[in-house]
Amino acid sequence: MTAQPGKDMLLKSVAPDSSTTTIAGLRTKRLTLNAQSVDITDADSSGQWRELLAGSGQRRASLNASGIFKDQASDEITRSRFFNGDVADWQLLIPDFGTLTGPWQIASLEYAGTFDGEVTFDIAMESAGALTFEAVP
């Protein structure tokens, strides 16, 4: 695999009919996948090394992005999902890697602007259920 341009990493909202809308104007995107470990170390653990329970614990994903609003449809989707507190399906496309799809909730939506620049936004999303990953063939 060769290096991929960051602009090719896309965030898409998924409608109930499975159609998607790309969230326009994103400049930066960051996905974080976390897994909580379950420590099962006890007095009999070999060499007093910590032991972890495989296949247990809580998994979650966080997505942070920032950019400028350039598209009325994606602006409306993002804003309404935030104000309604919706848990809705979203997709994150990572070029030459795969697609992560599932329910997310917008945890934070920030707007900023300076007198000599454009209005920008920052969005933070948290996974709200099981996510699926489909690798690029």
Labels describing this entry:
137 residues, mainly beta, eight-stranded antiparallel sheet
Note down, in words, how this protein is organized.
There is one protein chain. By secondary structure, the chain is mostly beta strands. The chain is built from 1 helix and 8 strands, in the order E-E-E-E-H-E-E-E-E. It has one helix at about 70-85; strands at about 10-15, 20, 25-35, 60-65, 85-95, 100-110, 120-125, 130-135. Strand 1 and strand 2 form a beta hairpin. The longest helix has 13 residues, at about 70-85. The two termini are about 10 Å apart. The mean pLDDT is about 90.
Share of residues in strands: over 45%
Uncertain residue segments: none
- Give the strand tally: 8
Please, how many helices?
1
Please, what is the average pLDDT?
Answer: 92
Biggest pleated sheet: 8 strands, antiparallel
Span between N and C termini?
12 Å
Structural class: mainly beta
Write down the overall geometry.
Answer: elongated
Helicity level, as a percent range? under 10%
The helix-strand sequence is EEEEHEEEE
Q: What is the element layout, followed by pairings?
A:
Layout: E1 10-14, E2 20-22, E3 26-35, E4 59-67, H1 72-84, E5 87-94, E6 98-112, E7 120-127, E8 132-135
